[in-house]
Amino acid sequence: MPDEHERMMRANQANWDARTPVHLASRFYGLGTSLDPERWFAAWEWEDLGELAGRDVLHLQCHLGTETIAFAGRGARAVGLDISEASVKAAADIAGRAGADVEYVRANVYDAVEALGGRRFDVVYTGKGALCYLPDLDRWAATVAQLLRPGGRLYIAEFHPLLNSLGPKPAEGEGSELLLRHDYLGRGTAVHRSGRYTYTDGPPVQGATDSYEWMHGLGEVVGALVGAGLRIERLRESDELPWPRWPEMNRTPSGWWRLPDSSPRIPLLYGLLARR
User: Fold this and answer.
1) Fewer CB near the terminus (10 Å): N or C of the chain?
2) What pTM, to 2 d.p., does this model score?
């Protein structure tokens, strides 16, 4: 990895360490109430993932590990991996209080093969704000291929690049218009952000506020996976989100949120299933 990318990822690590206490106390994650790890999943994710009981499941870039707990709840041997030491410690505490048998490992995703001792998995899961923190998708896809057993599956449930282009969080003073504000296609360069507030509610972040993100279009994601020898089996695009990005969004029977019928129907999330 180029030295510049290493520096940026170290900055991201420090930023996520600083974000963690804010997220733990936020209403957004709702950890002060009853834990419902499945609230972060669309029904079609479980349909695509299939039976998980007895499977080895690895959740990359797991942050607080709420989704990782959901895998354990469905009978999987679940492992969560994240770059942030604070996040991993918090995730282990949350799982312990929930009585969930989950293993958490602190490592940069690019070092996952070594950090996990060469273990292989039936399913690797990632997404919902993960890929934008990776500078090199070709290297990421090659890492995923090494983590999977033959026949193993990768599942990505990720915010659509179009949503990232609109901005996944409202800008200060922004109205409800759907306006393109950021690139859809990555330029190979990082977007530097310096924010005192994260995407959740709560107080300002104390300490490291710099972070770096990279835009990745769907073509880049698919190309990286195919280049690593994975076979794409399914690609879905969804117009729902697990939180109301725009104030005019309506809650659906699924408990998620969709723009009103008067707005254009656009993809906000995608699900991609690939097999080694």
Assistant:
1) N
2) 0.94
pLDDT single digits (tens) 164-218: 888 777 677 776 778 888 888 887 889 898 878 888 888 888 989 999 999 999 9
| Tally of CB atoms within 10 A around 242 | 17
Name, in order, each residue with C-beta under 8 angstroms of 69's C-beta and a sequence gap of 6 or more.
Answer: 35, 37, 78, 94, 95, 98, 100, 102
Token pair 């008067």 is at which residue?
262
**11-63, pLDDT tens digit by residue?**
999 999 999 999 999 888 888 777 888 889 999 999 999 999 999 999 999 99
162: its two tokens: 């179009």
Burial string for 58-68 (b: 16+ CB within 10 Å, else e) reads: bbbbbbbbbbb
Phi-psi region of 44 (alpha: psi -120 to 50; beta: other; left: phi over 0): alpha
Task: Look up residue 266 and give its amino acid.
Answer: I
Within a 13 Å sphere around the CA of 122, how many CA atoms are in the beta-carbon half?
Answer: 13
Type of residue at 252: T
148-159 and 240-241 strand pairing: unpaired
Residue at 32: amino acid letter:
G
Query: Does residue 245 sit in helix, strand or coil?
Result: coil
Q: Are 198 and 19 in contact (CB under 8 A)?
A: yes
Ramachandran assignment for 164, one of left (phi > 0), alpha (psi -120 to 50 degrees), beta (any other): alpha
Q: How far is CA 2 from the centre of its chain?
A: 23
Enumerate the β-bridge partners of residue 191: 213
Backbone angles phi, psi at 263, to 5 degrees: -95, 155
Structure tokens at 104: 């958490």
% helix / strand / coil in the chain, to the nearest 5? 35, 25, 45
